[in-house]
Amino acid sequence: MEWKIVALAQKNLRRKIFRSIAIIATVMVVAATLFSVTTIMDSVEQSLKRGTARLGADIMVVPAKSESAARSALLSGKPSTFYMDKSLVEQIKAIHGVRSVTSQIFLKTSPYACCDISDLFLIGFDPENDFTIKPWLTNTLGRPLAADEVIMGRGITAYATGFTLNFYNQPFTIVGMLEETGMEFIDNAIFISYAGIDRILANAKKDGTMISISGNQVSTVLVQVDPELSPDRVAVFIQAKLDGVKAIVTDRIIASVRKQLFILLRSVLSVSAILWVMALLLVGVVFSMIVNERRRELGIFRAMGAKKSHIFRLIMLEAAILSFLGGLIGIGLGGGVLYMFKEAIYTSLNIPHLWPNTARFVGLISFCMLLSLLTGVIAALGPAIRAAMLEPYEAVRGGE
């Protein structure tokens, strides 16, 4: 009997092909919208978590007047140059609650012949005290970073380890590559030791090349906080002790981007919820019509020995098949469009993103497929119960 129910369900769906397509299209729109929105939200969330974890710092200390530029550099990877005195590193290290510090200096490559790549973010760092760069190398160097060597972010795909690049007329060999984070600040930057920065400065002085930094400056001081104190409290200590600086708590950056993303996508989620409710109503109405049209058929089926449970399963199976097809097509369509236009979407949003890995994709697909199936099953539940409760004689007479 079970295989007969399956065969009968397939036959019924083919018999009313346009109605079946309408139900599939309804579920498809819901699934495509939901899958696209949840994928975007998940990619941003994972990027923020992974990126700030790899930043390794609880607090970023930057010049007070450059706070917005620092946030922009961190979130969008836009090369920004701002500087403060290097003596602040030791002063911050002495503040209560600070466990460890490291510093970085930002330099943008020149569009002239001195640099192989123009407008690229060069980030100088202190390898001896670093806790932000070296831990995330895809392959550990196992030795100190030489003055003529650099580490490359994963987003710079035109080059690989072993390549030599010229920055300000000095050759540097790429010896390491960072894992992908989804944050352009890390993925689209070249990381160079302070010894390498000194090499650039010495050559610039000798050649008379104009360069915007000096050896006694840093752009940011990254701070790790003692576990017993909160980053917010230590940030207050830093700003109270030092003038002209802004202590940015990295968790606050995550919260602000989440808020921005929520505001941006709230309307889309609202539309998705409205579409889902409309899909429930539409599919419910269609299956009510189906039951009314097939009263005589269902009555004959009952008279031939079918049980109420068989009628119920028949209607629910038809709803499940249509919902499954709608969900499958919708996820494929939504995922395809999102993949083709992902760069344009994320660029317009101007927020970090990390394309979900296989496991997370499977989770998102499973969630959207489950919701698609529930759409059809919940909508058809009432009509299926009414169909199962029909008495054979009344159903046959009512369907004449």
What would you note in describing this structure?
The chain is of the alpha+beta class and 400 residues long. The protein has two domains: 192 residues, no CATH class; 197 residues, no CATH class. The chain is 58% helix and 14% strand. It contains 13 helices and eleven strands. The strands form two sheets. A nine-stranded mixed beta sheet has the order 6-7-5-8-4-3-10-1-11. A two-stranded antiparallel ribbon has the order 2-9. α2 packs across α10. The chain is elongated, with a radius of gyration of 30 Å. The two termini are 26 Å apart. The model has no long low-confidence stretch (mean pLDDT 79).
Characteristics of this structure?
400 residues; alpha+beta; 2 domains; nine-stranded mixed beta sheet; two-stranded antiparallel sheet; 13 helices; 11 strands; elongated
